[in-house]
Design goal:
Strand order of the largest sheet: 7-6-5-4-3-2-1-8
Distance between the termini: 10 Å
Structural class: alpha/beta
Number of strands: 8
Order of helices and strands: HEHEHEHEHEHEHEHEH
Radius of gyration: 16 Å
Strand content: 15-25%
Helix content: 40-55%
Amino acid sequence: MMIKENYEQIKNEVGEDINIIAVTKYHTVEETLKAYEAGVRHFGENRIEGFIEKRAALPDDAEVHFIGTMQSRKVKDVIGELHYLHSLERESVAKKIEQAGQHVVNCFIQVNVSDESSKHGLKPDEVEAFIGKLKDYKYVKVIGLMTMAPHTEDSSIIENTFEGLKELRDEIAAVYPDVTELSMGMSNDYPIAVKHGASYIRIGSKIMGS
């Protein structure tokens, strides 16, 4: 398995300032630990069970990001270890984090920039008002925005999606200066995401293998 080589190649390509999240949802604990040994410190999980399993196995200096859809009733199962949530789109989830009140959770608001019916996320024009509802929450800290580009060979559509999120972030940051980060880009489109200002990229197969 070429995890170390894959990770080093992407790191060299995107530079030190980009946070590379290795998405381990299709991979075993053993493979995840190999990624840790290769230098990976950010891991992404889509399922609650996977999040709990990988967090328990990884050393303390690893950060496991929850990147899937979070159900409010599941917050209690992961809140002790949840420090990064990339898919906040409902106030009910924020309320559960606030009620649990253990520590600050760094949250990305999920935005459906491409307006696809199959995708989760707020519409761009809903984001500022949503962040406004959360501004007095003590344990929910909105640090950025997240999106997924359409699966398409047309790079101009992908470019427009990522540039749209960047422009929205710039607008939001003028009102809420803490909202600085952009979580966007996966194995098939991360170079375009980085070009448009991504600070967190979520890479599965290009690091972990298929």
